[in-house]
Amino acid sequence: MFFDPMYFVFALPALLFGLWAQWRVKSALKKYSQERVYSGMSGSEIARRILDSRNLRDVRVEPTQGFLSDHYDPSTRVLRLSPQVYQGNSVAAAGIAAHETGHALQHAEGYMPLQIRTFMVPTVQIGSWLGPIIFMVGLFTTRLFGTTLAWVGLALFGATALFALVTLPVELDASKRAREILTTQGFVYQGQLDGVSRVLNAAALTYVAAAVQSLSTLMYYAFLLTGFGRDD
Ligand SMILES: [Zn+2]
Known about the structure:
Blueprint: H1 5-32, H2 43-53, E1 60-63, E2 71-73, E3 78-81, H3 83-87, H4 91-109, H5 112-140, H6 142-145, H7 148-184, H8 193-227
Parallel strand pairs: 1-3
Antiparallel strand pairs: 2-3
Helix pairs in contact: 1-8, 2-4, 4-7, 4-8, 5-7, 7-8
């Protein structure tokens, strides 16, 4: 495709925001991976303890490879923690482990935004790559199809942006649960909660950045489509 400087007008602010968010995560992790958590327990021990206290003994906690690859898988009901979190007994590890456990609690309670998010996954997996292709094909075949095909591509990609937005309340709620649990169950003392918050807030920023990125791509598509054929 030809080079379009307008793309950068839409994409650059979101890209810079994303880089800034990643830098925030790295610096928060660097600092709070050094500080030992009050309870001295590892991320996996904390997750296990929280799950057991909520009668979720059948939810498994497993180690997984990769930096910040921590996640809860609702389809298998497995909580997978990265090596630093699984074994680590730092404030950062405790915060991330409790956050991921928060997703398991959301799932067990049938927390609505998580259900919507899970329901959207198949559409998003297809829409995120097929949407842009259909959109571009549609944009160059307007003589054949009018703008209909391009709008279909835009709508399909729009599901990705919607997914990124639905992710935000899910992530913020998991972090809120993590902070509450960590203090009420005595894993961290009050003074360490600030470190937990910094790590989790920085992680939340990366989700905000992802949402901004897909929304700005969506706006760029809409800009191309509504402006198509007007000024050439
Ligand atoms: Zn999360």
